[in-house]
């Protein structure tokens, strides 16, 4: 079959253009997060996979400004000093134009200092401590909700659900301490009694403290397990095996993200039924095409259902790329200005960053970040199938929480 | 009172597992005169071996513990043959430093290999037996009861092996003097290999027994390794009986410490400190540990 000269020309031009894109200097963007101990590397791994997925999609679609996108990964191991070193390497060594990611608030707080020093835009993907945005650095934006946003909502639900006496186990991190501070301030305002126990992340056996809670008079009616690492699974199971939670007398709440991962069920089994937790992703009823496409693509590539942690990383990269496209440059100042006015719909709704300075944490914060309180009512349930308890506008059950019958 | 009894019982269970891991470290130390910094990672590998033996080979959990022990024995033997022989062939001058670096290197290698091979996500093998035993306020899961029974069985077997078999007597001889043992026809090299294998098998058994109780992850061995070091020093370096006693003492001490600490909000955060406190107090009174004897360095 004879091809027309025009078709041949078009093919040649396409090949030449593709070669130009491939040959062009890549735009480098840095990713930071924990990929090894002592960090919460499970969360870091999901973020990294999601970032890889986004970068591949962007490059398949022709890259950015006619140049390929190159992600440079740095393992921060959950250690602030590693975060600082990683940021220095990315900015001064790899010459990245922007950085995103991070899972640990304490590490994120170290990283934003470096971003601020060099004036490089930084999107905090999964760090919740208020201070991340409360320092009001022009370079720092956040797609995850701030502790104050999440635990205001959670505390309002605790009060509305009628809990009177709450036992809290908190990890000694910026996230854990910050989250419990927000909760207890609200509890004080509403006359909810509470007792707080501090635990180290390395703790393995929580039996002794759970027994103390069980022997408290009056016995707590809600136990809030505020550990973001794998210790959360051990608390859930040990508390269940001892007959503390979930029981008709005491309900169980889990803060952070561990109860949202697929392996939660392998680790806790039936002890996870009736557990309540916060979800920082969209409720299923509000999923958009991007949410559905991301979940499908992630499952297909990594054989695992992603949580909101992955969505945050995925959207963070797209936001940076959109800012580059919008300005037509990789100049950091231009990118920061673009991010301040950008509106872009991702897997977790339409993103925009606030420029209000009161409260302090609201600066450069995605204020519409979704936060819902969910409850599992059967084993191996996905977060998208769990009951939504709060806020009431999205609730999928009439009750404020499902009580254990026996 | 029941509450404190419960704390003590719980501490006893955890202490028995610590004792098992620490006994392995002691066997290695007493014969090879090196501190195995990869002990926690052998504990972790034992847990993963049991997990995959159950998931892939559909073995009963108790049998999977034996498979984990055998696998860790093999890994220990292989590692000792490949990397530790320079310690006693004169190939290295600074033996202590070499041992530290090579076992520390194994720890890092195994931990990072585990993240790549097994994934970063926590896993949990099925229970030995689901459910719990209740007696008044006292509640102990069957997993804990079975783990403590099996750990006690392994420790008894270890003591019997060391005390009543020719291999055990030979190990004791080498632990006291390699050259004297060689004069009476004992091949010390073979016994170093055996000791490292037995120590690794005990670490693997402890990891496999704790797996259904605490879940498993690539970094699960870090804290037990630290506890094992504390127990070995507390019990007296080189004393298997001291390790058992030390493990139980640390377990019960931590349980009661949390139960009695006046500030309930901080009690659990200090639980590891109670063990160190017991160690410090013991060393003030008995600098060689509970049942320790003065040890010698590698000849």
Describe the structure in your own words.
The complex is a heterodimer of chains A (406) and B (299). In chain A, 54% of the residues are buried. Chain A is of the alpha/beta class. In chain A, 42% of the residues lie in helices and 16% in strands. In chain A, the strands form 3 sheets. In chain A, strands 7-6-8-9-10-13-14 form a 7-stranded mixed beta sheet, with helices on both faces. Chain A has a 5-stranded parallel beta sheet with strand order 2-1-3-4-5, sandwiched between helices. Chain A is globular. In chain A, helix 2 (41-60) packs parallel to helix 12, helix 6 packs parallel to helix 7 (174-190) and helix 12 (308-327) crosses helix 13 (332-341). With 299 residues, chain B is mostly helical. Helix content of chain B is 75%, strand content 3%. Chain B is built from 13 helices and 2 strands; from the N terminus they run αααααββαααααααα. In chain B, strand 1 (132-135) and strand 2 (138-141) form a beta hairpin. The longest helix of chain B has 31 residues, at 2-32.
Question: How would you summarize this macromolecular structure in one to three sentences?
Answer:
Chain A contains 13 helices and 14 strands. Chain A has helices at residues 5-23, 41-60, 80-93, 105-118, 131-134, 147-161, 174-190, 207-214, 231-241, 264-268, 289-302, 308-327, 332-341; strands at residues 27-33, 69-75, 98-101, 122-124, 140-142, 165-171, 193-199, 222-226, 251-254, 276-279, 344-346, 349-351, 372-375, 387-390. Chain B has helices spanning 2-32, 39-57, 61-84, 86-89, 95-118, 142-164, 166-176, 178-183, 188-214, 222-235, 240-260, 264-267, 271-285, and strands spanning 132-135, 138-141.
């Amino acid at each position: 079959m004879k091809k027309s000269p025009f078709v041949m020309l078009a093919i040649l031009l396409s090949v030449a253009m593709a070669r130009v894109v491939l040959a062009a200097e890549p735009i480098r963007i840095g990713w930071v997060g924990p990929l090894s101990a002592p960090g919460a590397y499970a969360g870091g791994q999901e973020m990294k996979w999601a970032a890889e997925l986004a970068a591949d999609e962007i490059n398949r679609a022709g890259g950015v400004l006619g140049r390929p996108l190159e992600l440079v990964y740095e393992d921060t191991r959950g250690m602030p000093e590693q975060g600082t070193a990683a940021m220095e390497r990315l900015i001064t060594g790899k010459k990245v134009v922007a950085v995103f990611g991070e899972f640990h608030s304490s590490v994120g707080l170290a990283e934003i200092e470096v971003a601020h020093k060099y004036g490089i835009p930084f999107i905090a993907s999964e760090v919740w401590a208020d201070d991340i945005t409360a320092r009001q650095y022009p370079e720092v934006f956040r797609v995850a909700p701030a502790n104050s946003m999440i635990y205001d909502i959670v505390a309002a639900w605790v009060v509305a659900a009628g809990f009177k006496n709450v036992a809290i186990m908190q990890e000694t991190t910026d996230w854990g301490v910050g989250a419990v501070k927000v909760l207890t301030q609200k509890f004080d305002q509403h006359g909810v009694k509470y007792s707080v126990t501090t635990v180290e992340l390395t703790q393995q056996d929580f039996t002794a403290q759970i027994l103390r809670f069980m022997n408290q008079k009056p016995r707590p009616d809600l136990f809030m397990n505020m550990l973001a690492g794998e210790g959360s699974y051990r608390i859930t199971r040990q508390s269940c095996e001892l007959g503390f939670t979930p029981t008709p007398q005491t309900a169980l709440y889990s803060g952070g993200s561990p109860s949202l991962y697929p392996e939660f069920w392998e680790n806790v089994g039936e002890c996870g039924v009736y557990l309540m937790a916060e979800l920082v992703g969209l409720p299923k009823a509000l999923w958009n095409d991007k949410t559905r496409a991301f979940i499908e693509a992630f499952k297909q590539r990594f054989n695992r259902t992603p949580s909101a942690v992955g969505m945050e990383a995925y959207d963070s990269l797209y936001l940076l790329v959109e800012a580059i496209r919008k300005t037509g440059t990789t100049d950091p100042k231009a990118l920061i200005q673009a991010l301040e006015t950008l509106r872009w719909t991702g897997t977790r709704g339409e993103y925009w960053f606030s420029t209000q300075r009161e409260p302090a944490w609201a600066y450069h914060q995605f204020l519409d970040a979704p936060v819902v309180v969910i409850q599992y009512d059967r084993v191996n349930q996905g977060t998208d199938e769990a009951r939504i308890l709060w806020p009431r506008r999205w609730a999928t059950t009439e009750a404020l929480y499902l009580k254990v019958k026996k | 009172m029941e509450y404190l009894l419960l704390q003590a019982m719980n501490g006893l269970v955890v202490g028995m597992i610590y004792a098992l891991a620490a006994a392995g470290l002691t066997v290695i130390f007493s014969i090879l005169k090196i501190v195995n910094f990869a002990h926690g990672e052998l504990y972790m590998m034992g847990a993963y071996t049991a997990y995959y033996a159950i998931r892939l080979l559909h073995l009963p959990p108790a049998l999977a513990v034996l498979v984990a022990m055998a696998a860790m024995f093999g890994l220990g033997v292989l590692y000792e043959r490949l990397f530790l022989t320079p310690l006693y062939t004169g190939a290295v001058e600074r033996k202590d430093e070499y041992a530290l670096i090579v076992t520390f290197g194994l720890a890092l290698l195994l931990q990072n290999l585990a993240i790549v091979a097994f994934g970063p996500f926590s896993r949990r093998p099925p229970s030995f037996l689901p459910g719990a035993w209740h007696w008044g306020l006292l509640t102990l899961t069957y997993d804990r009861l079975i783990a403590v029974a099996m750990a006690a069985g392994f420790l008894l077997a270890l003591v019997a092996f060391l005390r009543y078999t020719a291999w055990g007597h030979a190990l004791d001889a080498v632990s006291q003097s390699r050259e004297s043992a060689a004069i009476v026809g004992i091949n010390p090299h073979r016994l170093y290999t055996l000791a490292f294998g037995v120590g690794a098998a005990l670490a693997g058994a402890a990891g496999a027994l704790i797996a259904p109780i605490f879940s498993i992850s690539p970094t699960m061995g870090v804290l037990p390794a630290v506890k094992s070091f504390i127990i070995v020093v507390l019990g007296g370096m080189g004393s298997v009986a001291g390790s058992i006693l030390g493990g139980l003492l640390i377990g019960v001490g931590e349980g009661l410490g949390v139960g009695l600490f006046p500030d309930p909000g901080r009690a659990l955060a200090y639980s590891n400190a109670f063990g160190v406190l017991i160690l410090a107090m013991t060393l003030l009174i008995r600098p060689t540990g509970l049942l320790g004897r003065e040890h010698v360095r590698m000849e």
